[in-house]
Amino acid sequence: AAEKIRLIPQDFFAELCEQIIQHLNHKIPGIDTAELCQRIQTSGVDINVDDLAKIANTLSFLFSTAARNNLSTEELITTLGSGISTLPKHAVQVIRHVWNEQGKAIAVSEDARDMATVGQFVDMKWKLGVAMSSDTCRSLKYPYVTVTLTVADPSGQITDKSFEMSIPQFKNFFRQFKEMASVLETV
Q: Do 59 and 16 touch, CB atoms closer than 8 A?
């Protein structure tokens, strides 16, 4: 990860660290590595989404472990310095600054994070479509609903999950949501 971190400009690395801290503090649901990666690539850096996601996971683990162990800024930096592969100087400076400014806030909320082992729902989009025909069937006229769920996994990576449903399936899906809403109103 240290070699890939060297590629990332300091301002983007700082933004990634800030987003991770915000995620650990439950202020944002996750880190949109695809969007950040696109902006880094636009700036001329050759990095892919998978590498950026690995860096985000590593930093998330670093910050959450430091919070769990209640490390001071100097203890964290000393620990980083004793690692097998050394981080670039700009990365250590950013980590020092972010941890010094916002690290103590995660120590308080880290207990709540330990309980969150499932993803977090971020957004849902849907659209209605009609299949008119196919190469095997001339006249389908089959309506369907496409649903896209945006979910942040426990490490903070945001992903989209899409699926299609027939109209009867969608009606059942909708009925279940209404049932959940009525139960939530009683809580």
A: yes
What residues pair up with 131 in beta bridges, in sequence order?
142
What is the C-alpha to C-alpha distance for residues 16 and 38, in angstroms, rounded to an integer?
Answer: 13
Counting Cβ atoms within 10 Å, is residue 176 exposed (0-12), middle (13-18) or buried (19+)?
exposed
Instruction: Compute CA 92 distance to the chain's CA centroid, rounded to the nearest angstrom.
Output: 22
Residues 17-51 pLDDT 10s: 999 888 888 888 888 888 999 999 999 988 988 88
Residue 69 sits at φ, ψ, to 5 deg, of: -90, 5
Give the tens place of pLDDT for each residue, 48-62: 888 888 888 888 888
Q: Where in the chain is CATH 3.10.450?
A: 119-185
Residues 127-149, mean pLDDT to the nearest whole number: 82
CB within 8 A of 17, min separation 6: which ones? Answer: 59, 63, 94, 95, 98
112 contacts 86 by C-beta, under 8 angstroms: no
Helix (H, G, I), strand (E, B) or coil at 131: strand
Q: Which CATH number fits domain 119-185: 1.20.144, 3.30.300, 3.40.50, 3.10.450?
A: 3.10.450
Q: What is this structure's pTM?
A: 0.63
